[in-house]
Amino acid sequence: MSLLKTIIIDDEPDSIALLQLQLQKYCKQVSLIGTYDSSVTALTAIKELQPDMLFLDIEMPELNGFQLLERLMPLQFNIVFVTAYNEYAIKAFRYNALDYLVKPILAIDLIDAVEKAAKNNHPTETQIGLLQKQINGEPIKKIAVSTQAGVSFISLAEIVYAEASGNYSVLIMDDGSKFIITKTLKDVQDLLEERHFFRIHRQFIINLNKVKHFNRLDYIITMDNKVELPVARVQKDKLLSKFGGL
Fold it and tell me: What residues make up the domain containing 185?
């Protein structure tokens, strides 16, 4: 197996030193070719060294992580963001199918991030742009989802419902198309429930804006695409409350 040429960029030298030790101990497939506490210096080094993977802090002086990446487009390496952001911002990473580590970094998370980064395609300008907007608090309108074929950018407004399929989920779209994504329905729930989505059943999450009819007697909800889905009895009242308790 070829080694992953890797660079760490973080304005905190102690964070660099700790991550370097963790990589040496837990990630033998990583070959660390440079560490930089200046994003300006790192910019030149990345162009010269052409790494396979970058561990990148976002909040840095001179050039923050996003400004650095803007100068390197199109990206020819994988990225693992290192962040101290709160849960709201962390969701933005998940929305955009980008990997991240939260300080202080746990060994199990580091191992998983390296393994995923080795398999993933290079992040696109669209992914980075969406992530930056969402972290800045702009409303989420699109998500990037990892599929078997790569990364697809999906409008939230066009999702009718999501269905569980083992360790995967299937997104059913307005036009009848389907996207199989590598997330459980619980992961999808964590991402979508704040955005007009609601889990009606252990098997289904629906777009509340796509509901056409609810049969109170049979606990069946009909979506705009005429698909009928079961509603768990314990979710009925919560569902109705979403529509003002009709």
Answer: 154-242
Residue 9 amino acid letter: I
Distance CA 176, CA 229 (A): 16
Summarize pLDDT for 123-139 with one digit per residue, the tens: 878 888 878 777 777 77
Instruction: Note if the pTM is more than 0.70.
Output: no
In a domain, 89, yes or no: yes
**Residue 140 resides in a domain:** no
**Beta strands 168-173; 220-223: pairing state:** unpaired
179: its two tokens: 């996207």
Phi, psi of 152 (to 5 degrees): -115, 145
Residue 2 neighbours by CB under 8 Å, 6+ apart: none
Contacts of 132-139 with C-beta under 8 Å, sequence gap 24+, read 132/66, 134/89, 134/91, 134/92, 134/95, 134/96, 135/58, 135/85, 135/89, 135/92
Domain of 222: which CATH number?
A: 2.40.50.1020
Q: Which tens digits make up the pLDDT trace of 85-122?
A: 766 567 767 767 678 888 889 999 999 889 888 877 78
By CB atoms closer than 10 A (0-12, 13-18, 19+), residue 143 is buried
Q: Are residues 118 and 61 in the same domain?
A: yes
Report d(CA 201, CA 162) in Å as an integer: 11
